[in-house]
Design brief:
The protein is an alpha/beta fold. It has helices at residues 50-63, 69-73, 81-88, 91-97, 99-114, 124-133, 146-156, 179-187, 202-211, 225-231, and strands at 3-4, 9-10, 17-18, 21-22, 37-40, 137-141, 164-166, 195-199, 215-219, 236-238. Helix 1 crosses helix 5 and helix 3 crosses helix 5 (99-114).
Length: 251
């Protein structure tokens, strides 16, 4: 169990808190350098799309006669597609079809059903504009495939804000391994300690912690605020980006 200070300091409206989390081991969060970068997860962070992924998995798994997928999927948010497929599907299906073919099939379902309704999490564009105006550079670090990253950025009209995009098919190990965030920071020419990481899922929060992120901010789309504060290394917790009154809250 992680040790937490009992106090929380309200520094913006509604439910955004600053918390100091003391973790055992060498990895610590906490801005020790000026904030120069912002690394964003995609699923559940740029877009509140977890229910859409669940529906896509429902359609996909029905094609292969898999009925116990929902229980297995609960712990898979934030992980890479190969790992998720191994969790959900029989080994014979994977051997016959191949992981990439199966992942491409599922993600095509996701994009088809999400396209008519996709929109960014409330307040995201305003936050991105504030970050840009302050000279804070942004990157995406997602376990999702490149096609999904481009789909979200293009359909939401926010591609212009991101100088670098690291997707799950660009790394050898997906979250909770820190590789994605290490590469995202490096792509901006920054150290992870100079960056705030925006996340929504346990696997991504752990990846950010292990990468040595300066601060970890979590939007409560996938997990409840109580779960985030109790079980993760998150320091900032908020419902959506409208609750961030200014970028000084991140540094």
């Amino acid at each position: 169990m992680q040790n937490r200070q009992t106090g929380a300091v309200h520094f913006i409206k509604k439910s955004l808190f600053l918390r100091t989390n003391q973790k055992k081991g060498p990895m610590k969060t906490g801005i020790s350098r000026p904030l120069r970068g912002a690394l964003f997860d995609m699923d559940g962070t740029l877009v509140d799309n977890s229910p859409v992924h669940v529906r896509a998995f429902e359609i996909f798994c029905a094609r292969y006669g898999v009925t116990d997928w929902r229980e297995k999927l609960d712990g898979a948010f934030g992980m890479g597609s190969d790992d998720i497929m191994r969790m959900l599907l029989p080994a014979e299906v994977i051997r016959t079809r191949g992981l990439k073919t199966l992942a491409d099939e599922k993600e095509a379902i996701y994009r088809e059903i999400y396209a008519p309704d996709i929109r960014p999490v409330a307040g995201l564009r305003t936050l991105l504009e504030r970050l840009r105006d302050a000279g804070i550079r942004c990157a995406v670090g997602s376990s999702g495939c490149r096609e999904n990253v481009e789909f979200v950025l293009d359909r939401c009209g926010i591609a212009e804000f991101f100088e670098a995009r690291i997707s799950g098919d660009m790394v050898s190990r997906c979250k909770p391994d820190p590789e994605i965030y290490l590469k995202a920071a490096a792509a901006l020419g920054l150290a992870p300690a100079e960056c705030v990481v925006f996340e929504d899922a346990k696997a991504g929060i752990e990846a950010a912690r292990r990468a040595g992120a300066g601060r970890i901010a979590v939007v409560a789309t996938t997990l409840t605020p109580e779960t985030i504060r109790r079980e993760t290394a998150a320091e900032l917790v908020f419902g959506d980006y409208t609750e961030i009154s200014g970028i000084e809250a991140l540094g």
